[in-house]
Amino acid sequence: MLKVGVLGAGHLGKIHLRLLNQSSKYELVGFYDPFEENATKVSNEFGYKKFDTIAELIAAVDVVDIVTPTLSHFDCAVEAIKAGKHIFIEKPISNTVAEAEKIIALAKEYGVKGQVGHVERFNPAFTAVKDKIENPMFIETHRLAEFNPRGTDVPVVLDLMIHDIDAILSVVKSKVKSVNASGVAVISDSPDIANARIEFENGCVANVTSSRISMKNMRKSRFFQKDAYISVDYLDKICEVVKMKDAPEVPGDFDMILQNAEGLKKQIYFDNPQVSANNAILDELETFADAINNNSTPIVTLQDGTEALRVAYMIIESMEKK
């Protein structure tokens, strides 16, 4: 069983602590939080061991789970890696692409594994259809959230949109060709609403919208490809796959048939997979344990996290030019 420690005991850090404590693949050793009042409260309330320094926690574990504010991700990751510890690091991987690339290089140098917490990759609605998404040519995503002061210190692109950027990059097997984006800062110093058009070298286009001042929550993606339309509702954890095939010569009474101007007939049918309930955060943490134990590649690699961050900054730079 892998010994694990958590850096950061804020809102998400406490969720990680609870799940790691429940996991059969980890032994939760304890946590470190720089805010003494919060650290003492969490330790007293839940019984987790509180470490006095980052170094002491790192020395006591095999895996360091970094759930600190983004600005400190790099320093925490470097200290853990140089101590020979595997790292799970919350999204975004770091504050800059240059820092993220240094993390990748150090992990390779010290022979440790790393995974980035892009949790939507483990959303059951997405995992149920991921293998059915083949060469999509148009993607549309909407990630809208009701206002929450937590997270407004960073642009909505790094706060929310980066989830969809990572999911898109995981299914589009092509390099980004260009980005055109716009955003509006409504109540924050950085954009609260953003839209980006991402064009890939293979011709795929992704239209991505995020807002953190919406009247309702929404997390939906739609993937369009030849002979198929796939929708994913990350929030309600449901998905839909609509496919087309050549129509039978003698359609049934309830067959849905489309005919184009040339007389070509296609039959529409539904191929909706079973969505199995899960805890996506627990899954991402436990699959990382599997990757360490089996010496296999993590599902969301440090490189994946870096590419998502790279595209996010391309979007931010495009907005700043407007």
Report on the architecture of this protein.
- Residues 2-118 form the Gfo/Idh/MocA-like oxidoreductase N-terminal domain.
- Pfam families: GFO_IDH_MocA, GFO_IDH_MocA_C3.
- InterPro entries: Gfo/Idh/MocA-like_OxRdtase_N, Gfo/Idh/MocA_Oxidoreductases, GFO_IDH_MocA-like_dom, NAD(P)-bd_dom_sf.
- With 322 residues, this protein is α/β, with parallel strands linked by helices.
- It folds into 2 domains: 2-112, NAD(P)-binding Rossmann-like Domain (Rossmann fold, 3-Layer(aba) Sandwich); 121-275 and 310-320, Dihydrodipicolinate Reductase, domain 2 (2-Layer Sandwich).
- Helices cover 34% and strands 28% of the residues.
- It contains 9 helices and 14 strands.
- A 9-stranded mixed sheet has the order 7-8-9-6-10-11-12-14-13.
- A hairpin with a 4-residue loop joins strand 8 and strand 9.
- Helix 4 (73-82) packs parallel to helix 5 (97-110), helix 5 runs antiparallel to helix 9 and helix 7 (156-171) crosses helix 9.
- It is globular.
- It starts with a strand and ends with a helix.
- The model has no long low-confidence stretch (mean pLDDT 93).
Summarize the structure.
With 322 residues, the chain is α/β, with parallel strands linked by helices.
Compile the SSE list and pairings.
Elements: E1 2-7, H1 11-22, E2 26-32, H2 36-46, H3 54-59, E3 63-66, H4 73-82, E4 86-90, H5 97-110, E5 114-117, H6 124-129, E6 138-144, H7 156-171, E7 176-184, E8 193-200, E9 205-211, E10 218-225, E11 228-233, E12 238-246, E13 256-259, E14 265-270, H8 280-294, H9 302-320
Domain GFO/IDH/MocA-like oxidoreductase: 155-216
GO molecular function: nucleotide binding
InterPro entries: Gfo/Idh/MocA-like_OxRdtase_N (IPR000683), Gfo/Idh/MocA_Oxidoreductases (IPR051450), GFO_IDH_MocA-like_dom (IPR055170), NAD(P)-bd_dom_sf (IPR036291)
